[in-house]
Amino acid sequence: MNILVLGASGQLGQCIKKVAGERGIAGLDFPDEGAGNILDKDGLKVLFAAKKPDFVINCAAYTAVDKAEDDVDLCRKINKDGALNVAEACAEVNASLVHVSTDFVFKGDKLELLKEEDMAEPVSVYGLTKLEGELAIADALDKYFIVRTSWLYSEYGNNFVKTMLKLGADREVLNIIADQIGTPTYAIDLAGAILDIIASGNTNYGIYHYSNEGAISWFDFARTIFDISNTVVKVNPIGTDQYPTRAERPRFSVMDKSRIKQTFGIEVPYWRDSLLVCLDRLVPRV
Predict the structure, then answer these.
(1) pTM greater than the 0.85 cutoff
(2) Is 126 known to be catalytic?
(3) For residue 285, is it within any domain?
């Protein structure tokens, strides 16, 4: 089986490479940003014709949530038009697509687990363009798995865990938002789930939710990071109104993972267990 990974240099792309290597999975190709540019429609066609992928994993996205509010055109080009380009290229070579989306497609104003069929009402440009990408893929391609995830972190790239470790080492006091509730997701776990979907041979195409298990606030997440890493810093809980951002965030975005677990037999780790693994790799304990 030939698997093409787009956005290979990003956080999730690097995690897929790591997990595939650990599992001894052959046939994965990780083109660089030039060859795998999702905005280059003709270039994608040439790449796909040459590689003849059975599966394409699209990790490429515009994810600067606040910046997107002032950078709407580029955000939409990448998250909507780029996703469409990938879907159309998949259709031409009869490849199946695994596309990564986000909990930000939801408004997040209800204290209920978010199901795949719930109404998507994004409250930010980032969320809107990711939803537009989902819809574009569904219009252009039959063979797709859209996997929505949340609060992604790992040893790679820039993310909340690495930012907290850096700030915790530099400061004595941090104020962290306590009224936004979601689930951290270890990108290594997500990478494994994506490879499990592909390996299953299951053709129940559609939208699936994947995050780690559990629900916490950013404040709880930060405090746990510091506790596990033995970082001494005072953490104060604050409300969203005390830390205004350019883009609005969902207040509650805990996703129901029943569908992905039942369809593919995927086991989902609890968020704290996965955080322990990541922090052991980032801050090895003696």
Answers:
(1) yes
(2) yes
(3) no
Q: What is the pLDDT of residue 286?
A: 41
Cα 224 to Cα 218, 219, 233, 253, 271: the distances in Å are 10, 9, 12, 19, 11
Active-site position among 62, 126, 156, 210:
126
pLDDT in tens, 104-115: 999 999 999 999
Q: The domain that contains 56 carries what CATH number?
A: 3.40.50.720
- Domain assignment of residue 274, yes or no: no
Give the count of beta carbons closer than 10 Å to the beta carbon of residue 201. 7
Number of structural domains, the chain? 1
Any domain includes 200: yes
How many whole angstroms separate alpha carbon 89 and alpha carbon 99?
Answer: 13
Q: Give the whole-angstrom CA distance, residue 85 versus residue 43.
A: 10
**Which domain does 10 fall in, by range?**
3-157+184-213+254-269
